[in-house]
Structures are given as C-alpha cells and as structure tokens.
From TrEMBL:
MF annotations from Gene Ontology: iron ion binding; iron-sulfur cluster binding
One of the GO BP terms on file: iron-sulfur cluster assembly
A Pfam match: NifU
Organism, scientific name: Candidatus Bipolaricaulis anaerobius
Protein name as annotated: NIF system FeS cluster assembly NifU C-terminal domain-containing protein
InterPro entries linked: FSCA_dom_sf, NIF_FeS_clus_asmbl_NifU_C
Domain NIF system FeS cluster assembly NifU C-terminal: 5-71
Length: 73
C-alpha cells in the first residue's frame, strides 16, 4: 500500500508545488493511516489543515481505497 500512496502523492504534489509548497510521506500504518508532513509554503499556512483534509486526504482515498485517514505528522 505504501507504494500506491507514494504514487498518488506524486500527482498531488504538483498542485502543492504550484503554490510553493510540498508534501512528504512520513509513514503508512498497518491500519491504513497515512501520516504526511507539509513543507515549503504549506508549512505554517493558515489553510494547511483544509488542504490536508479537503485535498490530500480526498485524493488519496480516491486513488488508494485502503487509506482510512490522513494525518499531519
């Protein structure tokens, strides 16, 4: 599952990099929880949690149905 998550994050990364940000995969748990770190312009952005939930989590769950949640690390 980790490889699927990495591949999906590559597609999401394009959107974040367009605004000067990025995302790093920290871990994928056996339970299906994905932990990521927002970096660049995304780190500390007031909209970071919305981006995490409304964009990253939504897109990951569409592409990798085994993902049950996405959390900031």
């Amino acid at each position: 599952m980790e490889d699927k998550v990495r591949d999906a994050l590559e597609g999401i990364r394009t959107y974040l990099q367009a605004d000067g940000g990025d995302v790093e995969l920290v871990e994928v748990t056996e339970e299906g929880v994905v932990r990521v770190r927002l970096v660049g312009a995304c780190h500390g952005c007031p909209m970071a949690m919305m981006t995490l939930q409304n964009t990253i989590e939504r897109m990951l769950r569409e592409e990798v149905p085994e993902v049950v949640a996405v959390e900031a690390a």
